Amino acid sequence: MKKIQNIVKALFVAVLALVSLTQCGTSKTKKIKAQITFGVGGNCEMCKERIENALDIKGVYQAIYDLNNKKIFIVYNAAQFKEIQLHNIIASTGHDTEQVKADNLVYNNLPGCCKYRSDDDF
Ligand SMILES: [Cu+2]
């Protein structure tokens, strides 16, 4: 009788270990779905494509740039990105955001039709 109890006990421990192992695996890809909207400088369809392509990355589920009101809507994994990182990704393509100004060198390399800054920005 004692032997059976020990076997049951061992089985129980093994199952527990397995469960905690799989939980550990899933916690690595934890998802905290969040959404955010903020202003981004842009002019044309090329800008829209550039901005949205920059966010075509793992951990970003949706990125839609609205050319009319110059705002981007992003659905992302908040366990993977901080807000400021999203700003930085966009700014790195030459597009100013509400929080991060794009590097002038990158901005100057944008095609003429994409120059969205007004002269008094400088
Ligand atoms: Cu453009």
- Rg estimate, integer Å: 24 Å
Strand content: 15-25%
* Ions, cofactors and other bound molecules: copper (II) ion
Helical proportion, percent range: 40-55%
Can you summarize the main beta sheet? 3 strands, antiparallel
Count, helices: 4
**What structural category do the secondary elements indicate?**
alpha+beta
| Widest sheet, order of strands | 1-3-2
Shape: rod-shaped
Helix-strand string? HEHEEHH
Describe it for me?
By secondary structure, the chain is an alpha+beta fold. The protein is 41% helix and 17% strand. The chain is built from four helices and three strands. It has helices at 2-27, 45-54, 83-91, 104-108, and strands at residues 33-39, 60-66, 71-77. A three-stranded antiparallel β-sheet has the order 1-3-2. The longest helix is centred in the first third of the chain and has 26 residues, at 2-27. The protein is rod-shaped. The protein starts with a helix and ends in a 14-residue tail after the last helix. Bound molecules: copper (II) ion (CU). Residues 43-44, 46-47, 113-114 line the site of copper (II) ion.
Reconstruct the topology from this structure.
Blueprint: H1 2-27, E1 33-39, H2 45-54, E2 60-66, E3 71-77, H3 83-91, H4 104-108
Antiparallel strand pairs: 1-3, 2-3
The structure holds copper (II) ion.
The site of copper (II) ion has 6 residues, from α2.
Key phrases:
17% strand; binds copper (II) ion; 122 residues; three-stranded antiparallel β-sheet; 4 helices
